[in-house]
Specification:
alpha/beta; D-Maltodextrin-Binding Protein, domain 2; 2 domains; eleven-stranded mixed beta sheet
């Protein structure tokens, strides 16, 4: 199994400010908002904090938004990501459960909020690093968008349909290599889920993870991998040009422009989306939590957010508050189980702190 670094990190910040957008939803705007993103190349949601910041300001939901990339926190306890060293008014650890505040100690969310962009790779990274689960270490606020995955092969591949790949895996689970984004990320987990649904020995599956989707596509082109999993929207141009042949998509329904069945249609009872959402600091007061959830609900309803999702081929999959918390808890358990079956965890139970993770 090929191994690549799971945490390639970068840093940066951008400040956006405005007086409120045209047609902004009713409700008071947050005075100052810090939108934090665990910086990591290759996870599929790079730069989403800047895009969200622009939408929040243009829609009049926040007066000033600072989008900050937080290097080094992916795989650490999520509460660490809420600390912004040197930021005005944020000298302390606002993520500490004892503070009960969303910004600086004693400051309400309406005056100064702090939100952390989360996604499936953060959930997996916390499990692999053997830190507290995301759902436990922060306050789940909302799931916002999803990105469906396509399973593709080169146009000239001997694998003419998904059934051919399934038959090959049944004969020899390690007989072919599937490529995609980083090991332990959404593509890898989805491949493990597919193998599990097919009834093959998931531990034997060969997966090659790459830092960039372009690297995985090149590996597919030159034959280093037999098939590739990746963002359906990103693969659409190559599919439309006839360079790639789609075998299946992970969505619940067919995707426009991609002539391929869903996994569900193929008898693989699985629907899977790479997703992103927002977290608040652990220990938020109930008032601040409700205010933050309301902000997320208003964000989902804005024309600017809907236009951004449409332009990027994302599905709006909003789920807020307690519903998101329950879903995230279930999804964490599902991810943990697959990571264990793929050999990335020595146990599917993360109560064994310090000994669960398989070390090199």
């Amino acid at each position: 199994m090929r191994r690549r670094g799971f945490f390639a990190l970068a840093a940066g910040a951008v400040v956006l400010a405005g007086c409120g957008g045209e047609g902004a939803p009713a409700g008071a705007a947050v005075d100052r908002l810090f939108l934090l993103e665990p910086a990591a190349d290759g996870h599929g949601w790079d730069g989403i904090a800047r895009r969200l910041a622009s939408v929040l300001v243009r829609s009049g939901l926040a007066r000033t938004v600072m989008a900050v990339e937080r290097p080094g926190v992916l795989g650490s306890a999520p509460r660490d990501a809420f600390v912004v060293p040197g930021a005005p008014g944020l000298a302390g650890d606002a993520g500490d459960a004892a503070s009960g505040a969303s910004g600086a100690s004693g400051v309400s969310f309406a005056r100064e909020g702090r939100l952390l962009v989360t996604a499936m790779p953060m959930v997996a990274a916390a499990e692999i690093a053997n830190t507290a689960a995301v759902v436990e270490a922060a306050t789940p606020l909302a799931r916002l968008a999803g990105d469906w995955t396509a399973l593709v092969v080169p146009a000239g591949s001997r694998l003419r349909a998904f059934e051919d790949l399934a038959a090959a895996l049944h004969r020899d689970p390690a007989g072919l290599t599937v490529g995609g984004r980083l090991e332990g990320g959404s593509d890898h987990v989805l491949y493990g889920m597919i193998g599990k649904c097919l009834g093959v020995d998931t531990r034997l599956l060969e997966y090659a993870g790459y830092l960039a989707a372009a690297d995985a596509a090149e590996a597919l082109r030159v034959g280093r991998v037999a098939a590739m999993l990746g963002s359906a929207r990103a693969l659409l141009p190559a599919i439309s040009a006839g360079r790639l042949r789609p075998l299946a998509v992970s969505s619940g329904g067919r995707i426009e422009g991609i002539d391929a069945p869903t996994l569900m249609e193929l008898g693989v009872r699985l629907e899977y989306s790479d997703w992103c959402g927002l977290l608040g600091p652990r220990g938020m007061s109930e008032g601040d939590r409700q205010a933050a959830i309301a902000l997320c609900e208003r964000l989902d309803a804005t024309p600017h957010w809907r236009a951004l999702c449409a332009a990027n081929g994302w599905s709006r999959v909003f789920l807020g508050g307690d519903d998101f918390r329950r879903w995230l808890s279930t999804e964490t358990g599902r991810t943990r189980g697959v990571l264990h079956e793929l050999g990335l965890l020595t146990s599917s139970d993360t109560t064994c702190w310090g000994s669960c993770v398989r070390r090199p």
